[in-house]
Give the backbone structure.
Amino acid sequence: MSFIRIAHRFLASQKWVTALLVASFSGSSLLLVAVNQTVESIDRAFSDRVSSTPLIIGRRGSRFDLVLHSIYFRNPASQSIPYGELQIAAAADSGLCVPLLFTHETSIHHSPIIATTDAYFIARKLAVAIGSMPKRLGQCVIGASVSDTSKIQIGDFLQPQPKSAFDVTSPVPIELEVVGILNRTNGPDDLAVITTLDTGWILTGTGHGHVSGDDGTRKTNAEGASHIPESPITRITDENVNSFHFHGDEANYPLSAILVFPSNIQAQTVLEGKYLDDNNPIQAIIPEDVIQEVLESVYRVESILSVVSVLSLAFVALMFIVLTVLSIRLRSQEIETLHMIGCSKFTTIKLVGCETTLILIYSATAITAGYALLWSSGVLTASYWI
Amino acid sequence: MLTISNLTFQHDNSDFEIAIPNWNLDSGELCVLTGASGSGKTTLLHLIAGLYLPKAGTITVQGGCTADLSGQQRREMRLATFGLVFQDFRLFSYLTAAENISLPYNLSGSSSAHPEWIETLSEAFGITGILHQRAATLSRGEQQRVAICRALAGRPTFILADEPTASVDSECRDTILNTLRTYCEDHNATMILTSHDPSIRDSFAQSVDIQDLQHSEVLES
């Protein structure tokens, strides 16, 4: 029977005190590690993604919401800007202008469906790992994480979530055919379904397809289509793709944001100036500035949590010392017995040392297990919080 | 084996004093030490074991004077020579009976406690069935027998047993006493046993009252 076994037996006999000590030690340490790791992850994610997106044009409102929507694909757009804004920006030789339309999520897993153009793939340096890029109406590519979590394969169809189940005039969502799986980027694109801008407009009801002779109800729906087919097509194929058509002026077709990659700082300044007027319903924002404001708040929270963690660790260490001293006092007869039956003082010290070491080992194990749990659940990653 | 000469001892902050002019015990001798509560029986056992040092006089065990030994030497002597049975058992409640029995030898890295010997002792004291139970779950009688087993686990040549049958019934008492006697005969071990029980006093050839010990000039077997 070794010292470790005796120490383990003693700790097991004091299981509640041991559990409290281990929980306190590991909880405080884990909080400290987790907060630092998460903030670092958020910082890195924000910095990488934001620094590669110089300017965003979108509907005036919360600047942070616009950044989250257009860069991190959080919350489908409730308001839109006209496609004409993209045409104006592009005509002004502002650089690479990328339209984004994010109005729907998939019905399973709620992956954001991003409608855009080839320019997005160029700007984000995205390429398919398997399959091909979406070319035809109704096709899409999926991010690596979408493929991993939902086990969707090329050739499968994705069902978009209807915007409102109670709006009878809302367009019937078409199914999206998966034609490719993107390379992993460790960013929001991994969680997205990306389709063509035309397909996005079909989803919003700006365009639709129907069988020949179906003139529908002739009733203007919420999205402005001049008639609503009685038998809309919900899956686009090579055979029916030509029946799809759009209504209205293209300049008024909806976009949720435009990502601008100006060719130079002068072009960026000119574009920013164009949207400075507070009465303009459209705004241009520099995401890096917005995120910097947010990060400052995050850093403040991190500082507070770090101080709390360090203080609680110090408190737990003090509690541990007090409990050890108390334990030695309460076990004075036990220690005296060891001495009486012929054990040295060093034996007692080794025994108490073993108990302390075991508590530290239990705590380290709990920290490792807790960290692994947090890591596997994704809580430590920026994508969980953003 | 044991020679006490002109021993005096007094606890700190106490008027109570033990004064034993002379007392000898040879190897293999068994002696029952009697006396009223608080008369100093336990203190005398602790003095012999080297847990206390005399104020004056000498206690010689196996030719060595305890006062001349260092703390570490006295500790090693206790481990190698003495088997101590405590009045309050002093078992470790969170360890099993088997772990309690082998504890001193395992912690000291000594190889004196062989598993076969512990098994023999367990059978002799009738505790084989409870060896894997935690001490806290044992009855007082079982705890007492485990404590005696622990004292004998290192094959001591000198047993100091403080009220070793106080918590057991008469049948168990006889078993314990017979086993201790047999052990002493087989190992030529000396034993001093304290007891209030007149029947125990009568069952041993030699018994001495601590009061008589303090007032006799020479008391030899």
Remarks:
- The CA atoms of residues 206 and 225 of chain A lie 6 Å apart.
- Chain A has a mean pLDDT of 86.
- Residues 3-45+294-385 of chain A form one domain.
